[in-house]
From TrEMBL:
This is Olfactory receptor. Putative odorant or sperm cell receptor. Keywords: Cell membrane, G-protein coupled receptor, Membrane, Olfaction, Receptor, Sensory transduction, Transducer, Transmembrane, Transmembrane helix. It comes from the Eukaryota. It is found in: Cell membrane; Membrane. Residues 41-287 form the G-protein coupled receptors family 1 profile domain.
């Protein structure tokens, strides 16, 4: 395989989400509304969890990190896409393209692992309640947080390392509104079968295994909850249901994009749009609306610092 020294492409032309001006305007307004309304809500979740003494349990610690990762993820693609809507020719440099791709998989991989950690937390809390305070102590929580950041970094750096070895000598048009593995690889002027296979194993297979593992673990947890007669049964079921909703809306598009051969389909851009722009802003909000403790703490915070 040739090395990156043979790369002559210095920039990529993004074809965008659509060529229709009316649809572009509609998407621009939609994304802007999401940013103005929902993104501050994610930061409010983080502030609420950090400031309220009643939200110190590991569950809320991980929820705060989920909000932080989702907010960070939403800054990778959407801001540049909003700016690109204002220009007829959408250009991104080779270096910026690789940087965007790196952070997309770094944050995305970390978020997927965070959902695994949250499933582990719920399993210990519901199936091993007597050991919960011992297993999920503050040191263990920070160690798990460090592990998921490290896992996201390793996952992403593998993707970048494989792409940097590919030669790009033209064409340089990316049929998307951001840089991602399937579109970038297709522009390489060499046989990419082995690289595509490695990418599918690194992204697609791991995503699918995590998804199936999470669904299986929550099935066990819900089964144990139904067998119990504790007072917190309804609350535990509500929490698990919320986690499953988040898992479905996050892993579903990722599985569609990364577990198949890198061939363009008509719905690819729509799925990518929801996966990279809409869903990251909604995940913590979905959880918050179904968690009474967080909602109550949020209203107390707003009443204290805004209303008064």
């Amino acid at each position: 395989m040739e090395t990156e020294n043979s790369t002559v492409v210095k920039e990529f032309i993004l074809l965008g989400l659509t060529q229709s001006q009316n649809i572009q305007l509609l998407v621009f307004v939609l994304v802007l509304i999401f940013y103005v309304i929902i993104l501050p809500g994610n930061f409010l979740i983080i502030l609420t969890i950090r400031s309220d003494p009643g939200l110190t349990a590991p569950l809320y610690f991980f929820l705060g990190n989920l909000a932080f990762l989702d907010a960070s993820y939403s800054f990778i693609v959407a801001p540049r896409m909003l700016v690109d809507f204002l220009f007829e020719k959408k250009i991104i440099s080779y270096r910026d393209c690789i940087t965007q791709l790196f952070f997309l998989h770094f944050i995305g991989g970390g978020e997927g692992l965070l959902l695994v950690v949250m499933a582990f937390d719920r399993y210990i809390a519901i199936c091993r309640p007597l050991h919960y305070s011992t297993v999920m102590n503050p040191r263990a929580c920070y160690a798990l947080l460090l592990a998921l950041w490290l896992g996201g970094f390793i996952h992403s750096i593998i993707q970048v390392a494989l792409i940097l070895r590919l030669p790009f000598c033209g064409p340089n048009q990316l049929d998307n509104f951001f840089c991602d593995v399937p579109q970038v690889i297709k522009l390489a002027c060499t046989d990419t079968f082995v690289v595509e296979l490695l990418m599918v194993f690194n992204s697609g297979l791991l995503t699918l295994l995590c998804f199936l593992g999470l669904l299986s673990s929550y099935a066990v947890i819900i089964y144990r909850v139904h067998q119990s007669s504790s007072e917190g049964k309804n609350k535990a079921l509500s929490t698990c249901t919320t986690h499953i909703i988040i898992i479905l809306i996050m892993f579903g598009p990722a599985i569609f994009i990364y577990t198949r051969p890198f061939r363009a389909l008509p719905v690819d851009k729509v799925v990518s749009f929801f996966h990279t722009v809409i869903i990251p802003l909604l995940n913590p909000v979905i959880y918050t609306f179904r968690n009474q403790e967080v909602k109550s703490a949020m209203w107390r915070l707003l009443n204290q610092y805004v209303v008064c």
